[in-house]
Write a structure and sequence with these properties.
The structure is a single chain. This protein is α/β, with parallel strands linked by helices. It has one domain: Alpha-Beta Complex (Lambda Exonuclease, Chain A). About 40% of the residues lie in helices and about 20% in strands. The strands form 2 sheets. The chain has a 4-stranded mixed beta sheet, with helices on one face. The chain starts with 6 loop residues before the first strand and ends with a helix. It binds iron/sulfur cluster.
Length: about 180
């Protein structure tokens, strides 16, 4: 059965860092323009790979019927590699899950690289001059499905989840003033 709540990669990645942030964003609340950190991330994304491949928009339906969407930073199709650009490794677990979410979208669409080989992912940290490879296996797919189930339940709640008690994420979050101002 097709569900009504569409999950995009932005909400999913917010959920991985802070469920409250995902809920606020899903409600249509936007404060990104006030965050220097987010602006820096966008600048990095728009300038570092200006001669590289285009963004790739993806749509899929999860096994439980949830519509999914995502926009990949760059896809080097001939190499079968999706690239996601990040400026730091402080949320690396969330970054890994975000790229696996993209790989999942491709798999759900039956899209593979040359010779039927599944796509791989790569997180690029240009400021650190490093890259991190990402793959998607059955265990990670189960984890994504579980996270998706929790997220869709959370987004249907009438009230936002509690604020994070750890403030290190909050200092970089566009909603900091809303949560703690
Ligand atoms: S400020 Fe902190 S608690 Fe509030 S949405 Fe952002 S990360 Fe979550």
């Amino acid at each position: 059965m097709l569900k009504t709540v569409t999950i995009n990669a932005t909400v999913f990645s917010y959920y991985l860092i802070c469920p409250r942030k995902a809920w606020l964003h899903h409600q249509g609340i936007r404060m990104e323009q006030e965050s220097e950190d987010v602006a820096l991330g966008r600048l990095l994304d728009e300038t570092t790979y200006s001669r590289s491949e285009k963004h790739l928009d993806l749509y899929a339906t999860a096994p439980d019927g949830t519509p999914l969407t995502g926009r990949i930073d760059r896809a080097v199709l001939r190499d079968g590699v999706l690239h996601e650009t990040k400026k730091g490794r402080s949320c690396q677990a969330a970054h890994l899950s975000q790229v696996r979410f993209y790989l999942w979208l491709l798999k759900l669409n039956g899209v593979t690289g040359a010779g039927g080989v599944p796509f791989k992912g790569q997180i690029d940290y240009p400021a650190l001059r490093r890259s991190e490879p990402v793959t998607l296996g059955p265990q990670q797919e189960e984890e994504l499905a579980l996270q998706l189930r929790h997220l869709t339940q959370l987004l249907e709640e009438p009230h936002p989840p509690a604020r994070l008690t750890k403030r290190e994420f909050c200092r970089k979050c566009a909603f900091e003033e809303l949560c703690y101002g």
